[in-house]
Amino acid sequence: MKRVTTKLLIPLLFLSLNLLFSQTFNTVQIFNCDSSAGFVTTNLNVSVDNSNYVEGSGSIKLQAAGTLALGAWGSASFNPQVSNFSIGQVISFWMYTPDNAGRIKNMEVVLVDINNSSATWKFYYQTPLNRWHFYTFWLNKPSSSSGNLDLTNIKTIVFRIQQSEQFNTQFEVLIDDIRLYYGYEYNRFAKIESICEINEAENEKAAQEIVAKEISPWIDISQYITKADIAKGFVEVAVSFYGTDNIRWMMVGDSDSGNEKDLRAYSDGVIYELIDAQYKSPAGEVVYPRNDKYSGINSDSWIVLKFGLPKEIKSFYKIYIGAGNFQPAELLVGLKRIYWMASYYRAEAYVISPLPGVYADIEIKNVIPKAAWEYDVVRKIYNYVSGKYEISQGSEVEFDASNSVIYNMNTMITDYIWDFGDGTPQASGVKVKHVFNNVGKYDVSLILKTSDNKTFPELPYARKVITVEVKPAPSNIELYQNGPNPFDLSVSNPKTIIRYKLSEQSEVSIKIYTLTGKVVKTLVDKQTMPAGEWYVSWDGKDENGNFVDSGLYLYSLVTPSQTLIKKMLVIK
After folding, report:
1. Quick one: 179 exposed, middle or buried, by C-beta within 10 A (0-12, 13-18, 19+)?
2. Distance CA 94, CA 75 (A)
3. pTM metric for this prediction
4. How far is the C-alpha of 42 from the C-alpha of 160, rounded, in Å?
5. Per residue in 330-341, pLDDT tens?
């Protein structure tokens, strides 16, 4: 495939301002993943994949071996090409998880120094699957540790993967470009504390008090959000939880239900969700460490959350981190929860500023990105997915990279390289036009290069990928918000109305779901309806004629060409 590039320089005024505010930036690749020589494995097979990688000539492929039993761990260890990790703030890598990795239970990355002290960072794969994702771990904030890790003399890196406890899957993951970064800054914007007397601690007085407090009760953090964050599409917020006597702590999942455990942001009249699917649980389960409420993680370590951002913040951007999402772990000694018996606790929240670099951003002219709830068939939950683009087959669209930015780095953007994911030649330019001739989903990528010849993946956000779904010219359908909403079941003869619109005759299904995907009630089942505006009512009862519980529900309008989903709140 022929690559075409062009020189496009940013204005000198912007460059001069950038020089004034640049900060220290450093990155060192510690393993290039082009060779699997020297790896030591247990219950995993290791090889090099020369067809799917982000840099160099290959990536490391880790596959479940036949010896990996249900719930068991596999590991792969190797020696880094650099031993002094003290020059970095974070260790990072890129990881690709195909569909067959969708049932992996847990993952860990472990560093071991020359004295055999170790530090472990627990993590879980990011979504969507079948795409490369960027992972970072703060070197001074491990999930757990053994001894005092000497970052100047690291001898071994270990990747550990836990098999599902229900499904024996022959999963595989790809890992590439393992490196260190330095240059992050962060600002604390929230802090809560609780303290009690020693004799009161046995009754969990301080622990109960801090768990009942909101960490960030709609605090405005817009002053910390940069154009680089806007280009990324999210802001990173780190939460720490500290307690005396070396307590350990955990995270209870984001409920997405509008209550005190729903982590979210609010800007100019619009709610923006926590976009980390791995930290969501409508059922209130422990999500970090995953499905482990007893061992927890180190006191004062970090959990880094990503909140979606608008394309422009006009007045404010407020974060809500409520009561009970972060709390001591549940380890029991006898009948006592020992991590709940400290006399002092502290929880804090920080905005992490972007790494110095260039940040690619993509807009499609006259196409508004959509956000919707989508059902994850592997994990059997609904995920909130934003930044989706739908266009019609055969229509010309214009892609625009004008909002790509340089952040705290002395450089200029010189090349804009586009790949449309449909097998057509790459293109170049700040703005390019393209026609998708075939129906399907396509990953459209933009890669930026700088005047000092830096690009992705050394600059991790110099590449941006969006998904474009090309559809046949669809019949226009609309699904409106139910009314009343909230839907109060305590009134006499409760009823809520769901209205919808069809531009042409179509087969229609309308169903009510729980957030876990269970069908509560089928209101319309594959019924052919003529064009026009229609409505259907729901009395709040399930298929058995019983009133449903209070909470958040989803309702869907399904036609052969489109699916629309909205939320409703049921109260009693």
Report:
1. buried
2. 18
3. 0.79
4. 9
5. 999 999 999 999
